[in-house]
Amino acid sequence: MPSLFVANWKENGTISQAQDWIKTFAKKRSVLNQGKNVVVCSPFTALSTISEVIKKERLPIAIGAQNVSHFEEGRYTGEVSARMLAEFASYTIIGHSERRNNFGETDQIVAEKVKLAEKYNITPIVCISELEQVKNMQNFVSNFTDIIAYEPLFAIGSGNPDTPENANMVAEKIKEIFPQVMVLYGGSVDGTNVASFIKQDHISGVLLGNRSLDGNFFLEIVRNAH
Ligand code: PGA
Question: Is the pTM for the entire model greater than 0.85?
Fold first, then answer.
């Protein structure tokens, strides 16, 4: 199975930065043909541009959002629905710890977002920082078969990743709860440690924040991961 590399730009990335990022891959597209799949999760404002450039350059890069509304449509000022996202994105991050902690997203809200994303054929990448959150998902989602990213709080943006062995153990436990999910690891992944996560039996890819912002940097991490 190919490994998945998810770039999470968070609240970063203007249109021109997004264009440059994609063009980096256009110049070195061979990196994408080695059993490695890339998903770029940009802010909503760059999705349309990214989609155009990817089509123009015929790049095998998938597009993701970083969030989706838990309401289907209507009077919810400022929200972006799954149906709107489906015009650009095939993935969306849901329940990142920065959303759970700063915007009060509960396990129930996360589950509502998952259901709407699936309804509009967008693959959810649900972030969890503790196994408890996966257990709680069971109360709302009977059989989750998409992607879960294990991202321990201490590891996010700290330069202090979890050990690959512990991440693998957590991934195994996640699969005991939802046997068909693909598990990613996220939190201070960089060029020096990416391979050690990718090679774990239960880990199918990585999610990068900081190290995904510079296209060249991210591309080198993808290239060197094996
Ligand atoms: P980081 O962030 O790679 O900067 O640690 C990962 C994330 O928050 O998804």
Answer: yes
